[in-house]
Amino acid sequence: MKIKSVTDLVAKKKVGLQKILPGKPRIAVGLATCGIAVGGDRVYERLKEIIDKDRLDITLTKVGCIGYCKEEPLVNITIPGKPLVILHKVDESDAEEIIRSVQNGGVPYDRALCQVPAWDHVTGCVMDYGKGFDRIPLYDNIPFFQHQKKVILRDAGLINPEDIDEYIAIGGYFSAIKALTGMDPDSIIEEVEKSGLRGRGGAGFPTGLKWRITRDVKADKKYIICNADEGDPGAYMNRNEMESDPHMLIEGMIIGAFAMGAAEGLIYIRAEYPLAIKRLTLAIEQAREYGLLGKDIFSTGFLFDIRIATGAGAFVCGESTALVASIEGRTGRPHPRPPRLTDIGGGLFGYPTDLNNVETWCNIPVIISNGSGWYATIGARGNTGTKVFSLVGKVDRVGLVEVPLGTTLSTIVSDIGNGGANNRKVKAVQTGGPSGGCIPFRLFDTPVDFESLNKAGSIMGSGGIVVMDEDTDMVDIARYFINFATGESCGKCVPCREGLKHALLLLNRIMAKKGTKQDLETLALLSDTIVATSLCGLGQTAPNPVLTTLAYFRDEYDALVKP
Amino acid sequence: MDEKTLDIIISRYEAPAGRLLGIMGEIQNQEGYIPRETLEILSVKLEVPLSQLYGLATFYSFFSLKPVGDHVITVCMGTACHVKGAVKILKALEEMLGIKSEASEDGKFSITTEDKKFTLEIARCFGACSMAPVLRVDGNLYGYATPENLPGILAEYGWERHEN
Amino acid sequence: MTHEEVSSMGTAAKLVTVTINGKKYGADEDEILLSVAVREKIAIPHLCYEASLDPYGACRLCMVEVVRHGKREMVTSCTTRVTDGLEVVTDGPEVVKHRSILFELYLAEAPKSEVIKAMAARYGVTKTRFLKKIDTTDSLGNKCILCGLCVRACNELMGAGAIGFVNRGPYTVVNTPYFEASRDCLGCGACVKVCPTNAVEMEDQKNERIMKSWSNTRVPLAQCDCCGRYYAPKALAATILARVTPSLKEEIARCCPECRGKLIAKKEILAKTGGAR
User: Fold this and answer.
1) Alpha-carbon distance values, C44 to A205, A414, C20 (Å)
2) The domain A18-161: what is its CATH number?
3) Which residues in chain C have Cβ-Cβ distances shorter than 8 Å to A520?
4) Where are the domain boundaries for CATH 3.10.20.740 in chain C?
5) pLDDT digits (tens, 9 = 90+) for A352-405
6) Is 0.90 exceeded by the ipTM?
7) CA-nearest residue of chain A to B126?
8) pTM for this predicted structure
């Protein structure tokens, strides 16, 4: 059935709500990539076996990941009239106990992490689960969740990402219908501009402005692209966004395509994410089936469809011109700008092209549903909204963390992450992947926003925060990143291709305790030249891990070199 | 790869966007590498110079021009894995498989054991950082790897310790 | 709109004035800064620029400083198009500092290149702090700096696609697929001609041209029916002749360009003199 009107959408919403709250117990297993890897699939299979065997009146479903990776596998239980309960560290041997408890209207208390009496899906749907289970702590009192604000991850781990009805149930696609039938392209762009949304891929360019530039170019054809080539090591928020809530991305792209006048959209996704590719493919098919993609969407005459283009393992393809080259079937070697992607002749196959990161697109539906005014109150001035970070490395509570921009590093690392793992002292964090830098503990009152991180010598990047503790060797970290960047350099320009290689050779020598003070100076000079003269962002930022560790942890270098 | 299979793959990619990498990705997935004859036939069928296809095959790390072993072990070298000991995992695997990693001429890290049972590779990041260090054997991810739990993992794939 | 487009439309390009190192020069609006400098004989080192190809921006040696809103900004002059009032400094301290390091990198990358040594020396760089790359098996004699001109000439100008970049990052090289003789090579030698460091080598041996740098690709040469010398690669001659309209008569087409001229002249004389012998 094609959805043509709000009435149609409301009808589907009812169907979806029936699936989320089926009037009988529902068990949902967190099955994103990491949940599967730690045994979530075995838990699911075992539960299914028991339910099937005894033909129990229990709904079993898959959901994405709520982000508390340390506690995986996670399982949610909803019993009619009772709060949703999140179980943690579940393994298949717990399955029978879970089923037994559920049949008795309860949950296994020793596996319960927390309870959620009601959940705000932000896009106009508050799910009232119910009250009870007083012994189980409230979600809001769990330190890992307490300081977070879920806007992008509002549905992650709570709805079935493989079922479009559940997305519609929590208010999904209502923003798309609002935008396409009730707003004109200019007012949509104005809303995005007023929201203050900045690109979540790392550079922080104002999204509304990019959209306006694309809209204003006169061309027969335009493309929009979603950059899902999440290449920063240590960053996996985009993977989770696509695996847990793929329709959120599709809805954002539909709205953007309408605003900019594009009929074709592409999602460029890295080959390392097979599950995300699978779920997105399925989501696109479901959206086509419902008429949300294709011809005459919502009877407006608007035509738009999305295709997936897979990458093949090249970090540099996150750079916009290299990404486009890659989609066109060429090697990902950046070209100098201008022309920019939005220019005639500069984008995909020469057509003006708008490129936004996964998370940027994911911000669009809530901006349209709740308004730019609401959105702009979240976060800090000039840095509105929330950002999802992957808090990993030597931190106690690893996981995906969503906080308003402007939250300090110390809130993220100490309050949410509970400091170092195994009671080790935290020494620094590395943000922004290979383009970022290391920020020492003493600067942890730095608010996490685009400008403050730059001031500290690092960058926001796509949102990876890798924690280093007192045992981490910072020179080794610098060497690690230079090794990474050297291997990922496309090889087109000499400072990046040759400069990084020699920086790596110097670091190898220093780490082998064969380096001299002179080598350190050469390393610093070379780093400056790579920054100043490289053709694209990869080279221009690749020395940042060296420059920041030289600035903040010089003593570790000095201890390694001969005078 | 026979021509018919290749034709079926090609037919799935009508639009030019994402076509070449998509087709080559499917060849890689099905064969475990990109055979030379297949690349040459592809060049003729798509009217793309072989030099361009060869350039793609050597530029992108996902593609391999050499056949791989029965099981491919990929160690994640992401930042989180690195700080949690990925190098130790790699060294332990080299020792277990009796192979030595050296930089190859093409810059790709891929070594196959003499009996062609295992191929050891590295990846930049799987995006499974929460359970670092991580490795993948064929399609399956294994988190929280330690040198101690590796023998158990590899045993699932027919690995046995050879006493030297 | 680009300079080329404006010109091709027959509209005269707007004349603008740019200041380079304090001196004023006239230029067409949107002209490439490096081409202005080359014309005016202002020394800006460069390796990957070729007027007949799109700006590439790979060698980074042509970086200069432009003054925008009172601030100096480093840009590559091969990718910068001039606008009226543009202010350029080619030898500011920042440029000199970074350029010197780039020259050191080139000296390490192509240690056997006399061109690089001479160019670096002109800018005061005679030795490098970086480890020199010496590869005795390098078919480009440790002279290649990966400017990409040969690849682009082969692909974009000749449409042959015989050579390409192989691998990436510091492992990048230029060669034929699988490092074996190419079936696509026309033997035109454009790669030899455009190479700024004289790294690409070819040699004609009797009836064959050997592209020594490209996996010893052997290309048969066409022999002139008249004088008997081998004058051009067969495939290249065929490609060129196929483009000539109206096509040449068989007997003329099988001669070298020199004999062809003579033959045509002779025929014309014959025609005018009525064919009397």
Assistant:
1) 33, 53, 11
2) 3.40.30.10
3) none
4) 3-91
5) 999 999 999 999 999 999 999 999 999 999 999 999 999 999 999 999 999 999
6) yes
7) A272
8) 0.94
